């Protein structure tokens, strides 16, 4: 993956190569159009609910993965589309927006709603707070995630 990085001085852009690991997650042509108005580079699906390994959070270079009560959510306005989170996700819960399996499509709008709608117990939408670490655990989820049956991760069912 190649990035164009512009330093603080004008006209000092340099091209660098970003190596995220042995896997190549570059996108090919999209088979599914993204619904108008939704731009979610990466989406966290059902496999994260009640699991939240958080390896993705540690790898995110811009701190855009926020913690709800039962799931993690990627802020679409803060994400730089680097794919580091997808590489580190132990649960296989992170998808590029156009690669979502059909059973995960509701999470496209749901991840965006976490930031654009008022969550239970909050007075206003989260919007773009400028970093998950600074905000801390939100402690609320979207209606979709809240409605999912609870599961345990200890192997006892």
From TrEMBL:
Q: Which residues form the 4Fe-4S ferredoxin-type domain?
A: 70-99
User: What keywords does the record list, in alphabetical order?
Assistant: 3Fe-4S, 4Fe-4S, Electron transport, Iron, Iron-sulfur, Metal-binding, Repeat, Transport
Free-text comment on the cofactor = Binds 1 [3Fe-4S] cluster.
One Pfam annotation reads: Fer4
Does the keyword rRNA-binding belong to this entry? Answer: no
Q: Where is the signal peptide?
A: none
Transport listed as a keyword: yes
Q: Which domain of life is it from?
A: Bacteria
Q: What cofactor does this one take?
A: [3Fe-4S] cluster; [4Fe-4S] cluster
Q: What does this protein do?
A: Ferredoxins are iron-sulfur proteins that transfer electrons in a wide variety of metabolic reactions.
What's the protein name? Ferredoxin
Lineage of the source organism?
A: Bacteria, Bacillati, Actinomycetota, Actinomycetes, Mycobacteriales
